[in-house]
Amino acid sequence: MSVVVLGSANMDLVARLPRPPAVGETVFGSDLVQVPGGKGLNQAVAARRAGADVAFAGAFGRDAHGDALAAVLAAEGIGAGAVRRVGRPTGVALIEVFASGDNAIVVCPGANAAVQDLGDADRGLIAGADFLVMQFELDPAVLLEAARFARGHGVRTVLTPAPVVAHDPELIALTDLLVLNAGEAVQLSGIDDPADAAAALSERAGAVVATLGADGSLLARDGSVAERLPARRVQAVDTTAAGDTYAGVLTARLDAGDDLPEAMRWATAAASIAVTRPGASSSMPGEAEIRAVLEG
Predict the structure, then answer these.
(1) For the chain, what percent of residues have pLDDT higher than 90?
(2) Residue closest to 107 by CA, chosen among 280, 278, 272, 249
């Protein structure tokens, strides 16, 4: 069993602020840290720490940030044979984290934008995988090419459509599991109620898992809501990687043989741990810690 993540990798520059600044206003921050991130890298780390055999496909620059991200993959035991080193700066995310735990993010794609097609190394990884995980921080045309290839090789696809961008509707139709938050569900479907939005999207994708913040999460299939799971109540410090933690752990548990409701239970526990810590990949729990919360 194995998971391939085709996605973005960034160096996150994270500033902690008391509140969002108004236009033209200067607000003093209390801290500035540099943390490996990007939705693809985050999901790969989350899945790996939850016990999955993971490989990452994407692009880093030939720079210090790229070297740092490569070191993260090596340290986590994530396969990097399909990582491209390109002549563009490594992607960077500028992240503002506020006292409330909420955040605002600006992404400069850099090397991520160099991924314009599948290479032989990408195809080799995907063909041998059980799950292909993708996000919208790469060119949707590449994601569509990968989804078609995965479908042709019997590989299950997991897509996080974040941020929501223009894409070919075929991509959703080729998605076995769509994992998204309430806002993304509304934006992607054009339906104001998140549950109704997820239900409608499940008529287009194989299944939909929507995270709803304090309202927990839900599973939709065949046009209706099939399951609802409550949230785990915690004091959030930084929500930056909550969704990526959820998606990565969800996929890892599916890869381990869990059904969707049980995988959602693991993912909920993992995300609830991650939001109590600062940073993106640095906040993600391991399998033993998640299990302890579930059994506690």
Answers:
(1) 84
(2) 280
pLDDT higher than threshold 80 for residue 240: no
Catalytic-residue membership of 244: yes
Spatial separation of the C-alpha atoms in residues 218 and 208, rounded to whole Å: 8
Scanning 96-205, the segments in alpha helix (DSSP H) are 120-127, 140-152, 169-173, 182-189, 194-201
Burial of 254 (0-12, 13-18, 19+ CB in 10 A): buried
Rounded CA-CA distance 154/162 in Å is 24
**Tokens standing for 68?**
């740092």
User: CA–CA separation, 88 vs 136, rounded Å?
Assistant: 20
CA distance 178 to 280: 21
Closest CA to 93 of 107, 113, 72, 79: 107
Residue from 33, 12, 37 nearest 94 by CA: 12
**Confidence band, pLDDT 50/70/90 cuts, at residue 1:** low
The pTM of the full predicted model, rounded to 2 decimals, is 0.93
Cβ atoms within 10 Å, residue 219 = 21
- Distance between CA 54 and CA 94 in Å, rounded? 27
| Active-site residue, from 12, 122, 244, 255 | 244
d(CA 48, CA 13): 23
- Lowest-pLDDT choice from 23-32, 175-184, 194-203, 258-267: 23-32
133-162 pLDDT tens trace: 999 999 999 999 999 999 999 999 999 999
Q: Are 138 and 115 in contact (CB under 8 A)?
A: yes
